[in-house]
Amino acid sequence: MTFLMAGHDTTNVATCWALYLLAQYPHEQDLLREELYLNCVIEETLRTHTPLPTARRTNLKDEVIGKYYIPKNTEIFIGISVLQRLTEIWGPTTDNFDPKRWLNPSLSKNITNLNYLPYLNGARGCIGNKVALAEAKILLGFQIKKRVFPIPKPDPYLGLAVSIVES
Length: 167
Prior knowledge:
Helix content: 40-55%
Strand order of the largest sheet: 1-4
Shape: elongated
Distance between the termini: 22 Å
Order of helices and strands: HHHEEEEHHHH
Radius of gyration: 17 Å
Structural class: mainly alpha
Strand content: 5-15%
Number of helices: 7
């Protein structure tokens, strides 16, 4: 059940953001209709508005990272949305929605499994990432063929606010 719920929820979030971003950038809608641009739009949406902005992990042993000592069993929060907006990785236009960046071969040299983590990776990564990507491609591809998304009115409540609630 977790597999099914997690895959649908994150896909829903990512697809909604993709449609919202495409509405803000109508020229990207046109490119998406004309080319095989779907992967670029999905990757850029996941980079700019990742459904999972943070992740929490517990280290298994004492570690020293740079000048920082991290004792065993320390909870570590990974700022995924921060990593995916680092200008040293993504360039000076990191805050812009620019799917064309994924067509740039020099960018792929900078992308690693440590700075692009929409589904995390490794043993604790999302087991449904392939399903989620397939769903997103189907949903977005179908929607963009049938409709033109108008530019939405600015919404002061939409943004990149991240909070942590623990119970």
